[in-house]
Amino acid sequence: MAKMTMVQALNLALRQEMEKDDSVVVLGEDVGVDGGVFRVTDGLINQFGDQRVLDTPLAESGIVGMSIGMAAYGLKPVCEIQFSGFAYQNFHQIENHAARLRWRSQDRYHVPMVLRAPYGGGVRALEHHSESREAYWAHTPGLKMVIPSGPRNARGLLVSAIRDPDPVIFYEPKALYRAFREDVPEEEEIMAIGEPRCVRQGSDLTMISYGAMMRPTLEAAVELKEKDGVEAEVIDLLTISPLNEKILVESVKKTGRAVVIHEAPRSFGPGAEIVSRLMEKAFYYLEAPIERVTGYDIIIPLFSREKAYLPSVQRIIRSARKVLAA
Amino acid sequence: MPRKKISIPNKIEYLSILNEKSELDKKLDPDISDNLLLKLHRTMLLARKFDERLLSLQRQGRIGTFPPISGQEAAHLGAVAALRPTDWMVPAFRETAAEIWRGRTLESVIIYNNGYNEGAAIPEGRYDLPISVPVGSQILHAVGLGWAAKYRQKDDVAMAFFGDGATSEGDFHEGLNFAAVFQAPVVFVCQNNQWAISIPLAKQTRSKTLAQKALAYGMPGIQVDGNDILAVFAAAREAVERARSGGGPTLIECVTYRLMMHTTADDPKRYRTDKEVEQWKNRDPLPRFQNYLIRKGLLTEDKIAKAEAEVVQEIQEAVDRAEKQMKELGDPVHMFAHLYAAMPPYVEEQKKEFERELAELNKEADHG
Question: Using a CB-CB distance cutoff of 8 angstroms, which residues of chain B are in contact with residue A267?
Answer without folding.
Answer: 346
